Hints:
The structure is a homodimer.
Chain A: H1 18-40, H2 43-49, H3 56-60, H4 66-96, H5 104-109, H6 116-139, H7 144-168, H8 172-191
Helix pairs in contact in A: 1-2, 1-6, 4-6, 4-8, 6-7, 7-8
Amino acid sequence: MSVGIEGSKVIEPKATGPRDGRDRLLAGARKLLAEKGYAGMELRDVAAAGKAPRGSIYHHFPGGKRHDTIERALGELGVKQTLRMFGKVFSRRAADHPERIGCPVAAAALARPEDPALAAAATAAFQSWERPIAAALEREGVGAEKAETFAGLVVSTIEGALLRARAAGSQAPLDSAVTGLEQALDALVATG
Amino acid sequence: MSVGIEGSKVIEPKATGPRDGRDRLLAGARKLLAEKGYAGMELRDVAAAGKAPRGSIYHHFPGGKRHDTIERALGELGVKQTLRMFGKVFSRRAADHPERIGCPVAAAALARPEDPALAAAATAAFQSWERPIAAALEREGVGAEKAETFAGLVVSTIEGALLRARAAGSQAPLDSAVTGLEQALDALVATG
Lengths: 192, 192
């Protein structure tokens, strides 16, 4: 009953399977999120915090800290193509590994009321994805208030769609959500 | 680390606090969802399945099975006012009980891969909310394909916003998501 990051499970460093490697990294990410928050968390420290081999971080989280990737894509591709690209990446991963669908930050989000610091770190992560989306929308001519609201809509929709994709064991809800966001974005830009 | 419905916790009928009453009903709902699916689940059976007093169902789930409420509201108020109304209901509940924010169906959604039948029941519930929204949008002049996509967007957005509200311990992400959906709906209707 959790997505990605397990409750308060302690990962012992003796087992070595691929599932275990991922679990150790997630345990490390959880520890650092709680200690330093999302902004202060360095990806290179995650492996050490989870007692996992350093190189494993690039194998298990090829996208790195997501908001860096989001900012770069938005700058190079604009909002619509970035949405489409992220949608394709998530969708391909979901199709390849339906049993792993889910956002590690969503698991941290569910830590309230037991662990409010971890839940707050999740909120900071969500906001770190929203800010560059809102800024890019403004650059594309959307008013500041609408841009901020739409950026929040994007993040909530993707989180909800990941949850639904997990339930369905399929990428279909993700594909549909991205189409819905593209449609909403087109209409928003057309109406200012 | 779960929203609403607890993993495989067995609720013994001896404790009697209000928290326990809610837990028993959720255990009952979980059992029926797994056995009969969402469509076949009768609200009046939930209390019995969870060994909870029959009247408690109306106390803890005053909205009843949500898709009935959605259909009635859509027929009487139209899509935009229904969105606004549900947004206000969720927001008020979240403000009153920030520790309880979350959708019981979202918890069932996370049951995959351990319990695929329960996860499938969650998908059926999500779809049962989508269908009347899509139908109402069509009645309001939106084309069939766009209506279906937007209905999916609504459900994914609300689920994601409930998750974020849980993380934030506040109704703010819900309020923002509903504003975003209203804005997207206005733009959709304006552009056909």
